[in-house]
Sequence to fold (321 residues):
Amino acid sequence: MTCPSTSPPADTEAIIQVEGFRMDFGAKTVIDGLSFDVRRGETFGFLGGNGCGKTTTIRALLGIYQATAGTLHINGKPFRPEDGRTLGYLPEERGLYKKESVLDVMVYFGELKGLSRRAARGWSMDFLERVNLADKAKTRLDKLSGGQQQKVQLGVTIMSKPELLILDEPAKGFDPVNRRLLMDIITEQKRDGATVIMVTHQMEEVEQLCDRILLLKGGKAEAYGTVAEVQDHYGTRTATIAYTGVLPEDASYIPVEVRQTGAPGEFTAHLALTDAVDSAELLRHFVSLGVRVSSFTTSRTSLEDIFLRIYGADPALEGAL
Ligand SMILES: Nc1ncnc2c1ncn2[C@@H]1O[C@H](COP(=O)(O)OP(=O)(O)OP(=O)(O)O)[C@@H](O)[C@H]1O
Fold:
């Protein structure tokens, strides 16, 4: 799966800039000289193993933690609480007023973010309808399941149409149907112009949603770039071809497996493509040499496999890191 073509160009202005960020807790260094930016309008995946410092970085960015060293800027300056109206933050720890009704809580936060009571109420009812919670509008929050509370908190986060959304594990506690709904909602936010930074462990969703990603390891950026760039650097590209004839030898691929599939001369082959090869060019080359191709598909190593290799210390990757 490739990176969405909606990725903002490299010269797009940065909305978040982190430079030389270091974070110590006592004698323990959690982040050690981290630098990255998030471009206006992109969806940015902030990834890494448990306890590697993702939430710590978000908290330092929002001034909840004081960085040991480095600069962390939103819109060119350190974040101040009064900038909060243009920011939607879904924290890792969920915390809404649990003894109040769902609608009252949503309207309260809507007004805090500058919406009129009427607008906040109308928006909230539409949102609750959309996420199948309209019948819970008058229910106390602590009577809702974890996933239902999570949906309410997501609503509170996006209600004021913030220009920057920071979502710390937004899919936590969601079943597959609600994860799909969450992805639709994030896609809409992006389409409406929001910049989204999301901490997540759901690699498939990262592949579908994110323009660029950063994988944190050992307090540093282990990988940083578009999804496709990271896949190409840490993984391989494979072509699967069904054909009749003989494939020419070529430096642009290594045949991993070739099987006869039907009548004599009919084969399916898996080819590991070398870095620079243009797969469409390779296909044209085969056809020009008389190979009759009935299907040709390419795929990249999944981010999930790359994550496992990086964080699971797969010996196959040790040389590459
Ligand atoms: N206030 C704190 N005091 C001391 N140590 C802390 C504090 N906050 C975080 N840490 C430590 O910093 C490290 C990074 O924690 P953090 O919550 O940022 O990880 P994370 O990448 O978000 O993990 P997860 O994916 O499990 O949510 C952990 O070892 C954690 O124990």
